[in-house]
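Dear colleague,

Thank you for sharing your sequence with our group. We've completed the structure prediction you requested, and as agreed, I am returning the results in plain text so they can be pasted directly into your records. Please verify that the sequence below matches your submission; if there's any discrepancy, let me know and we will rerun it promptly.
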Amino acid sequence: MTRTTIVVPAYNEEHTIVRLLERVRAQHLEGVQFELVVVDDGSTDATARLLEARPDLYDTFVRRKHNGGKGAAVRDALAVASGDYVLFQDADLEYDPADYSKLFSPVLSHDADVVLGSRLIASPVTRVHYFWHKVGNHGLTLLFNVLNNTTFTDIYSCYVLFRRSLIDPAELNTSGWQQQAEILSLLADRAASIYEVPINYYGRTYDEGKKIRATDAVAVVTTIVRERALSAIAGLGVPRRGASTRSAGPRAGRTNGKAGDGVQRGAGQRPKL
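Please find the predicted structure tokens below.
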């Protein structure tokens, strides 16, 4: 039985959080046991109240006193995760939990270390969306692939499934959207077997609550370049700051395929996304 922790960070998602968690709870895969960890990242709407009223929808609820950014919420969730694998799930309805069966196929069939869901490889359903978002995603993915010698098609998909032993939350230094680039850089460096699978995508508009902005790309680019540089330095025998002692899988052997109580940590004054 593969135990998997599903991590759901939420910030001001009162319109979608209950429906999303109901869909997650409805998923059942043979050979997979789910643990659901939800983190309210200092929401100012009714998100936390709705979650507290429905404890049947999760196994662990972490309520942050202040908004610290998506990465801070993810770090808190990873600290309490107990699964063999971790899967990220956004609190909106852009990504469909019905795609879990696709994500777990490489894990159950090929013992994959990492699986990404891609919106850009023959996705059955994709909502026509913002042109420049797609251009930006292509650019970020190209930069990541060039620096890490990978063949990803969509590095900023929500769905990242990975072996928990590959990432120690204590070593993560970022708290915003750029944390995905940090995590994926570490996974690309450590995982021996990485796959992508096509997923559906139902993107929402800014009027519907979309939060990511073009300016977030600057921090993502900086993180991708910095993480690659740190990896190169580590290759010379200089340890990374806070490097995990649990990391696995030599990079050279990697194969790529397609197929609660409040956590009181410091946060800035404006919402961090």
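Summary note from our side: Residues 21 and 57 are 6 Å apart (CA to CA).

Kind regards,
the structure core
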